[in-house]
Specification:
- The complex is a heterodimer.
- Chain A has strands at residues 4-7, 10-14, 19-25, 31-37, 43-48, 52-56, 59-64, 69-74, 83-90, 97-99, 103-108.
- By secondary structure, chain A is mainly beta.
- In chain A, the strands form two sheets. In chain A, strands 2, 4, 5, 9, 10 and 11 form a six-stranded mixed beta sheet that branches. Chain A has a five-stranded antiparallel beta sheet with strand order 1-3-8-7-6, with no helix packed on it.
- The N and C termini of chain A lie far apart (41 Å).
- By secondary structure, chain B is mostly beta strands.
- Chain B contains no helices and eleven strands.
- Chain B has strands at residues 5-7, 10-13, 19-24, 31-37, 43-50, 53-56, 65-68, 75-79, 88-95, 106-107, 111-115.
- In chain B, the strands form two sheets. In chain B, strands 2, 4, 5, 6, 9, 10 and 11 form a seven-stranded mixed beta sheet that branches. A four-stranded antiparallel beta sheet of chain B has the order 1-3-8-7, with no helix packed on it.
- The termini of chain B are far apart.
- The chains are: A mainly beta, B mainly beta.
Chain lengths: 109, 116
């Protein structure tokens, strides 16, 4: 089946710093989403981005489908950005969603 | 427009008991997905359902686990004769359907199951 890798596995940032999280996948996909799981366990949908670039406030994401990777950019990080960031891919509309292992982000004041 | 709702949020069971987890999808969503997250791990797909149909249950353990999404009412994930290894967070997600943005999955708050 399709493999999803995320890097780095762990990241510690000073408040105000910028960061880039990466998601690699081993096959072409129909759908890619980025999620944030906050320290209370809640999963928040950040982006649906099978290709191209999207921006939402301090967050933006780019997926290069032909090269099988996606990037999540966090600018001017805040302590509330702490948590685990997952990317999840769907190969075809009738396939199951595969989650990456996540990047654990800690933003310290 | 209420989001995906799950209840209970926390569930404690003794070994051998049954656990029933409920999920009400977002209004207008007819596709429901269940995932399990073991401690310190990522989410693993369990089952994908549409109204009255199981579309993909390839992630479900073959025994003790079952899921349904009836014509009326919430989706139910049922775990019979629970064991300690079933302790996990169980997340439900829903989507509008297939194709493009309709596949975007929205997650509920999860049910944390603890088996004593």
């Amino acid at each position: 089946g399709i493999q999803v890798e995320q890097s780095p596995p762990d990241l510690i940032l000073q408040e105000g710093a910028n960061s880039t999280l990466r998601c690699n996948f081993s096959d072409s996909v129909n759908n890619l989403q980025w999620f944030h799981q906050n320290p209370w366990g809640q999963l928040i949908n950040l982006f649906y981005i099978p290709s191209g670039t999207k921006q939402n406030g301090r967050l933006s994401a780019t997926t290069v489908a032909t090269e099988r990777y996606s990037l999540l950019y966090i600018s001017s990080s805040q302590t509330t950005d702490s948590g685990v960031y997952f990317c999840a891919v769907l190969k075809t509309s009738y396939d199951k969603v595969i989650f990456g292992p996540g990047t654990s982000l800690s933003v310290i004041p | 427009n209420a989001g995906v709702m799950q209840n209970p949020r926390h569930l404690v069971r003794r070994r051998g008991q049954e656990a029933r987890l409920r999920c009400s999808p977002m209004k207008g969503h007819s596709h429901v997905y269940w995932y399990r997250q073991l401690p310190e791990e990522g989410l693993k797909f369990m089952v994908y359902l549409q109204k009255e149909n199981i579309i993909d249950e390839s992630g479900m353990p073959k025994e003790r686990f079952s899921a349904e999404f009836p014509k009326e009412g919430p989706s139910i994930l049922r775990i019979q004769q629970v064991v300690r290894g079933d302790s996990a967070a169980y997340f439900c997600a829903s989507s509008l359907g297939q194709g493009g943005d309709q596949e975007t999955q929205y997650f509920g708050p999860g049910t944390r199951l603890l088996v004593l």
